[in-house]
Every structure is written in structure tokens, then in C-alpha cells.
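Researcher: Re-running this chain for the archive, since the previous output was lost when a drive failed. Same request as before.
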Amino acid sequence: MRQDPSIAEKFQDLHPPFAPQAARVEADRCLNCFDAPCTAACPTHIDVPRFIGKIARDNLRGSALTILDANVLGESCSRACPVEVLCEGACVFHRCNQQPIQIARLQRFAMDAFHASGGTLPRRSAVERAEKIACIGAGPASLACAAELRQRGFQATIFERRPLPGGLNTYGVAEYKLPARASVEEIELIRKLGVEFRHGVEIATEADVAALEREFDALFLGVGLGPAHRLGIPGDDHRDVIDALEFIAQYKTDTPPQVAESVAVIGAGNTAIDAANAARRLGAANVAILYRRTQRQMPAFSFEYEHAKQEGVRFLWRVMPVRIHADEGGIRSLECVQVQIGEGGALSPVPGSTFHFDCGQIICAIGQSPLLQLLSAVRGVELRHGRVAVDRPTGRTANPKYYAGGDCVNGGREVVDAVADGKRSGIAIAEHLERAAQGAGSPEAVHA
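Model: Regenerated C-alpha cells:
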């Protein structure tokens, strides 16, 4: 992985790691609740009181193994999870208006120690099985699925079209939350388990899918989402109009992109805020997020909004772009109108409200399309509104050979949700193949 050395300086940790003594003091605050609402609030159901208790007793390896038993991407999730609305949001200290336990920082403390000591993932079974499973896409869902299967002795192979595995963890989560190096380091744990990675391989056609079906006994779709939505206005094909995820990926894994003095970010989700904050840290003096609805209606979490304001990002509400004005020197301005929100959320322009936002660069963060080309190439897999339809407890699709999880199923939720999907599918695939092997008389005879 190539990364500009200045990135670490510009994108220092949003939440610095605990020093050992501070971690033990924080761990001692945990009440070890019997019903553990923090564990219930975690989509992967990490045993939070148990791993914190082990930190308090200075058993950092035991703490990390407790985390990894539930969530193989415990490092990434400790940095990127919106814990304010998950585990920490459920902490009982909220009931008495006290600061919740800093669960994420404690989780990162345990995981950092585990990586520093050269820790490895344990196997759940010493038996080597012959059945082979392909995971398409190398994002969090596929990583969790492949790790679960490999720990149970199955042969797991991950196919990824990009040079590095990790999906959004590597390419799309803001560097100050989750450095690309941390994602890649974490993936090495899974590689050392014996999971095979095939990079630079795109699975897109019926022929590609058929080849995999011949080689593998089961397949997991963890492909995430596809191309970013375009603005759909005159001038949106200009070279200085860039997709937010592409912008983030470029500065995380390559040479940082040049930013203009003034940048407009379209959209108000968490990715829009990550991109806006990055533009500020990369040197843009004036960065504004333009959103067609109100602050109350923005998709981003409120704590992300507050953080963006601290970074110096401005917000313009009820604003819709209508045209990009540029000349040979580049973008000059973004023509916009104010909108009013009517019954049922319908938007209409306010007469006479047209204005120009002067900017030299526009970053779009208005969502992604499903990967319909690939998903449509898989026979028997049902799509609903562009998403793969699955049995939620197992991730099994209408085609019994296929399972799915992550953004292609849930439309784009959190990293931890994708991990939970992948783990459930890994367990379900293993159980299905084990039953099939018992019926066939030997593992070598299994072909789901």
C-alpha cells in the first residue's frame, strides 16, 4: 500500500488511544451489569463486561480473544463504529447522567496490544475439511464470513477486484477514524488463518459466476454497493466533480488529491461529512455541505455533524444544485436554488431564490447504486428494490448455494452490521455443509 507520509500528520486519531494506566482506571468503572445492555446493543454481541473485566485484570490477550470470538474485525469496529448510538449509547451510566464507559477506546486498547504482540486467531476446529467456499468482495462481510469458515476448517477464498482487501474499511472510512494501515494489518490475521485472497479479479458476468459455481461448494455475496449516483445536472461530468468515496480512497491509499480553495460537498450523510472534514484537513479554506433538506432530516449522526462544525465545515440547508459553471480554468461556481418542503416531503424551488456558491471543486456524496450487473448474473437469487433478499438469521438466498450479507443486503449500514451478517452466514454455511457431508458419507463428496 502506498500512502503519502503527510497523511498521518494531517489525519491524527479522532480519539487517541488509552495509556495503560488510564485504560485500567476506565475499565474499573464498569459495573459488569448482569443484563449487559451494551452487549445487546452491539450487532455482533461482543461480551463487553467480560472483555473490560480482563483489561482490569491486565489480561489483554484474553480481552482481545473475547472480542475476536464475536467480531473478527474488532480493531476496525473499535475505531469506526458509531458507538454513541450502539454500545456506549446503551451504557447504564446514561440513566444517571454520567459519562458512559468508553467501550470503543478500551476495545481498541486490547486490540492494539494483541496486534503489537503478534497475536493470531485461534481455530475452532483442528479438522481440515475439503469443502470450498468463495466469498465475492473483500469487505467486512466477506472477511467475517471467510474467517468463521476457516476457523471451522473449511477452505475459504476471497475474490476482490481492487488491489487491497477491506472494502470501505480500507478505502472509504475517514483516515482519522480508521487508518488504511490498521485495516490491512487486521486483515493479515485472517490471511494467517489460511484464507486465500485473489486480488484484481472482477466477477461480473454469468460466465464468471458459472466458473465459480463449478469450483466451489457454496458462495457468499459480500459485494457491497456499486457506482455512485451522479448529480444529474449540467456540468456534472467536469473533471473537478469527484465522488466522495473515490476522494477518500485516493488520499487513504495513494497520493492525496489536490483540493481547491473552496469546496462544495453535496449530501449530508456520514460519508459526506468524512469527505468534507478531509477536504478541510487537506487544505481547503472554505468547505460547505449543501443539503436539500433540513438539519433534522440529515442522514448523518448528530455527533458527526458536531464534529464537522469543529473542523470548520459550514452547512447550507434546503439547497439544491441546478447547474455547474466552469471555464477552461476549472469550476467557477455551483448554481443553486433554495427549496421548500411540502406535504409528503416533496421539494419545490423557492421563486427568485437562485444563487451561486463560488467553488473550485465539488464532491458528491448522494449514495450508490446496487451492483445489478453482477447480482442479475446469479441465477435464482432474488432482488428486492436492488437488494439481495435473504433469510436474515442465516443469510441464505433463494438459491441454496448462495448466501449474502453487508451493503448488498442492507443497503449500506455500518461496518459492524456487515461483520454480523458475514459471521451468521459463515456459521450457516458450515452447518449446511456439515449436514450435507454426513448425508453423503464423507466431506469429499459434498457439492451443495
